[in-house]
Design goal:
alpha/beta; 4-stranded antiparallel beta sheet; 2 domains; about 20% strand; Arc Repressor Mutant, subunit A; 8 helices; 5-stranded parallel beta sheet; about 220 residues; 12 strands
């Protein structure tokens, strides 16, 4: 993959570039937020690794401008600012993942690889299918086999989001951002409650369960192997 690293600490930037290159990736490094944004907008990178505290243009401003320009490349935010409010701000600005400093190199490499495996965004009108489950985003309806699923609005939003990320682990933080927008305490168990109700409607009375809980991580929608 082609990876852009925007990190103003030269030693950290060189360390990341070397590690990613040894893992088979091509890297470009920028130690300046404004330059990093220019590179992100003008070159086709597969993944961006962006620090938050940057000269000339901070990481969140870089990310917001990048998203407003219609760019969809996944972004891993890397920062020493890593409490809940900081992570929420980063993800709301358009980040796909957030890793606090100091970090374990193996975890960073795994997260970059996971972001690189994400499929390209699906057109909003495209029918989503996972096994015998089909979702119509235009009509905001879902059915499994020949049964129409009677879903509440939040349940439908969760299911559609899971379908867009079928086969991937979706964290509770990702669901908070996509469905609720962090308008309440992120420590609440509202997600677990809604997913439990959704699972009853999607999987009950069917021989194969499509919604799986990934212990300690989140949820995954897919057909079991």
């Amino acid at each position: 993959m082609d990876i852009l690293i925007v990190e103003d600490d030269g030693e950290t930037a060189r360390f990341l570039a070397k590690a990613l290159q040894e893992s088979g990736h091509r890297t470009v490094v920028s130690e300046d937020g404004a330059e990093g944004l220019y590179l992100a907008l003008t070159e086709p990178f597969d993944v961006l690794v962006v620090d938050r505290m940057l000269p000339r243009l901070d990481g969140l401003a870089l990310l917001e401008t990048f998203r407003k320009a219609g760019k969809t490349a996944p972004v891993l935010i890397l920062s020493a600012l890593a409490d809940v409010d900081d992570r929420v701000a980063g993800l709301r600005a358009g980040g796909d993942d957030y890793l606090g400093k100091p970090f374990a190199l193996t975890e960073l490499l795994a997260r970059v690889d996971a972001l690189g495996r994400r499929p390209a965004p699906v057109a909003a009108h495209a029918l989503l299918k996972v096994g015998d489950l089909s979702i119509n985003p235009m009509a905001r309806t879902a059915r499994r086999a020949d049964r129409v699923l009677r879903l509440q609005p939040r349940e439908y939003q969760i299911l559609e989001y899971l379908a867009h990320h079928a086969g991937q682990v979706v964290t509770r933080m990702m669901l908070l951002s996509a469905v609720w927008g962090y308008d309440f305490d992120p420590q609440t168990n509202v997600i677990d409650v809604h997913v439990s109700r959704l699972r009853q409607k999607v999987d009950r009375d069917f021989p194969t369960a499509l919604i799986a809980t990934v212990r300690g991580a989140g949820y995954m929608l897919g057909v079991p192997e």
